[in-house]
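Need tokens for this chain, all 134 residues.
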Amino acid sequence: MSCNKNLLYILITIVSIAVGITYGYFYATSIIEAITSILWSAFAIALFATLILLGIILFNRKETNQCICRDGFFLLFGIIGTLIFSEISLAVTINTTLIAVLVGITAFFTVFTILSLAKMIACLIQSICSCQNY
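Here are the structure tokens for all 134 residues:
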């Protein structure tokens, strides 16, 4: 995992783009009906990730600094994108094509947030456990 740290974020970005395109397509073809619930769930996920990030920063330990510095930006990018685009998607009700695009972008940011949060938590666990003497 320490060989190429950016490779995982390239993979996270590719997966997020694929899910975003899929969600946008499913919404445009009316396969997904309950989009309001999905958008509110995305908003809640972003708020939850924000609380976790704030908790990690506030209760920072010396051995976790590298994880915050390396992964914090990516997590913050996903959180801000999810918050902005989920609210825009909930507010726009006029154009179905525009909503499908916004739903796809919201799905991208939501998946990016979830995977970045998982990456940061894995990094935190690894850094804390590698400092322990067993």
